[in-house]
Amino acid sequence: MISTSLNGVSKSFGGTPVLTDIDLDLGPGITGLLGPNGAGKTTLLRILATVLAPSAGRVRLLGQDPARPAQRTDVRRRLGYLPQELGFPRGFTPFTFVDYVAALKEWPDRDARHREVRRVLDLVELTDLSAKRLRRLSGGQRHRTGLAQALIGEPDLLVLDEPTTGVDPEQRATLRRVLSAAATDAAVVLATHQTEDVAALCDRVVVLDDGRIRWQGTVPDFVATAAGRVWLAPEPTLDALASWRTGTGQFHHVGPQPPAGAQPVEPSVEDAYLLMLGSAARTAPAVAS
Amino acid sequence: MNAVVVVPPGAATRPVLSITRLETARLLRHPVFVIAVLAYAWYVVKGAVLDPAPDLRNMSEDWSVLTAFFLGLGGFVTMHRITRSTGPSSEVVRSVPVDEPRRTLALCLTCLVPCALAVVSGLFTWAMWTVGPGGGPEAEYAVLTRGEIWAFHVTTVLATLGGPLLGVAVGRWWRWPMAGGVVAVALVAWSVSTGAFTRGFGTTLHHMAGPYGVTITGESSVQAFRQAGSWYWHVPYIAALCVLAALAALLHGATGRTRRRLLRAGGATVGLALVFLLLSVLTGPEGVLVWHA
Question: How distant is the alpha carbon of residue A148 from its chain centre?
Answer without folding.
Answer: 16
